[in-house]
């Protein structure tokens, strides 16, 4: 049986929209002032990158918890190349997983990243359909 996600996106006037989600949280989508918006919300393409990083990050955080890994700080840098022609889309995306700490288990952390990238993250799989992905894991020992 398949699952359906349903969100409602409502125009707020000018170039702003509000989208809800099944959890009851709302977010505002808008564009920059120089493009005719008010700059009061998230831009759609940036939201796609946040969705990608968030999806994979949740996988990795869950695995860090299960493996009882000691990590002081974990950040994901997502750097995407936008095509020149309309419709503009991301054709190449670099995803950097940065782990900071004094007791990093590099092997297990790399395994957590690999499991997310190769098996669990559905958003990663969607991106794979239209972009070349470059995955990097970087360890910062305190």
UniProtKB/TrEMBL annotation:
InterPro entries: KH_dom-like_a/b, OsmC/Ohr_fam, OsmC/Ohrsf. Pfam families: OsmC (PF02566). Coiled coil: none annotated. This is OsmC family protein. It comes from Cellulophaga geojensis KL-A.
């Amino acid at each position: 049986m398949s699952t359906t996600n349903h969100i409602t996106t409502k125009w707020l006037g000018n170039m702003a929209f509000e989208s809800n989600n099944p959890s009851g949280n709302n977010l505002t989508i808008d564009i920059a002032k120089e493009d005719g918006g008010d700059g009061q919300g998230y831009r759609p393409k940036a939201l796609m990158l946040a969705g990608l990083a968030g999806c994979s990050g949740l996988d990795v955080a869950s695995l860090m918890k299960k493996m009882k890994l000691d990590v002081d700080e974990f950040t994901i840098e997502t750097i995407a190349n936008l095509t020149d022609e309309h419709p503009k889309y991301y054709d190449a995306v670099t995803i950097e997983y940065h782990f900071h700490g004094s007791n990093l288990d590099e092997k297990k952390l790399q395994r957590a990243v690999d499991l997310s990238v190769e098996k669990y993250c559905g958003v990663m799989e969607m991106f794979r359909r239209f972009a070349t992905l470059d995955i990097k894991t970087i360890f910062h020992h305190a």
